[in-house]
Amino acid sequence: MDLLERAVAGKRLSLDEIEDLYRYPLPELAAAAHERRLAVTDPALVTYLIDRNINYSNVCTVGCPYCAFWRGKNSPEAYVLSFEEIAKKIDELKAVGGRRILMQGGVHPELPLTWYEDLLRYLKHAHPDVRIDAFSPEEILGLERLTGLDAREILARLKEAGLDGMPGAGAEILVDEVRHRAARRRIPTLDWLRIVDAAQELGLYTLASMVIGFGEGPRERARHLELIRRQQDRARARYGQGFAAFAMWTLQTENTAYRGKAPGASAHEYLKTLAIARLALDNIENHQASWPTMGFRVAQAALFYGANDFGSTMLEENVVSAAGGYDRTHATVAEIRRLIRAAGFTPAERDVFYNVVRIGEPAPA
Ligand code: SF4
Hints:
Elements: H1 3-8, H2 15-21, H3 26-40, E1 45-49, E2 52-55, H4 83-95, E3 100-104, H5 113-126, E4 131-134, H6 137-147, H7 151-161, H8 176-182, H9 189-201, E5 206-212, H10 218-239, E6 243-250, H11 267-280, E7 287-288, H12 291-294, H13 296-302, E8 309-312, H14 319-322, H15 333-342, E9 346-350, E10 356-358
Helix pairs in contact: 2-10, 3-11, 5-7, 6-9, 7-9, 9-10
Bound molecules: iron/sulfur cluster (SF4).
The site of iron/sulfur cluster has 10 residues, from loops.
């Protein structure tokens, strides 16, 4: 059996074989990835989520050179939103039918753990019907250093206060030579995996992600995918659940100190890696297209390279937009549905666990 045939059949590929997939022409990879996607997810549907990002603070001590979002705590542009401001943003989300926020900030040097607990309790009290998926492994590592507690203890306290999930931001490429060449103080691979594992052990929702364009090669991309796959195996075997989906995008460096220093990644590379991810990640069923970074047209094409999901409405997003992502960092529900239909699929609203909640038109808000 040829390598692509084995991948389409869902056979487990070795690290070398994942790397070998990069040698195949894009159309062959696309055909294989699409066939696999049609076999493991509903072939007629492309799902989407109504949600909003909330960046509660832009203060960060990590200072990644490819990030245009962060500010030092004494910067005139530094901010920390009040609990009331955050709750108001949730009102806006509910007005368009959304019931989930994705809330992230930087690594604040001083906000105590009790601030995060109080925030979660305040939001859950004000909006008991809204899911809160928040914080990244990097933010949790920052809290470990600030409090002396370990990630499991911190996440358990946050869960008790109302946290529903910890999305997997900051994975980028899980190879330390790549991540520390790009950002010296970025969370190391083992810490990222350790903190995600703690979240999964506690039953928190998590998402696997990948960012390409740091100058990494096929071997490093394959290693990243293999690590994600291994963690998914481990989480499912030990905790009965793991990453809900896989999302991938390209490095955005506009307005950053990294501009011109990173090779970045083309739409061709994006689609190729998306297709390879579909074939390599035999234990993750749902793969997202990324329209905020790649644009609507490439995201529509991604639906034929292994993706079965169009991501979310993202009523507000500041990290990608600050780094000059595609010129749109939010989309209406109607736009997303129209784009999915134009690509030849039936749009279906989903929840964070990829359960379809509505296939027909949404009720008017
Ligand atoms: S990417 Fe995250 S950790 Fe890095 S500087 Fe930006 S906010 Fe801080």
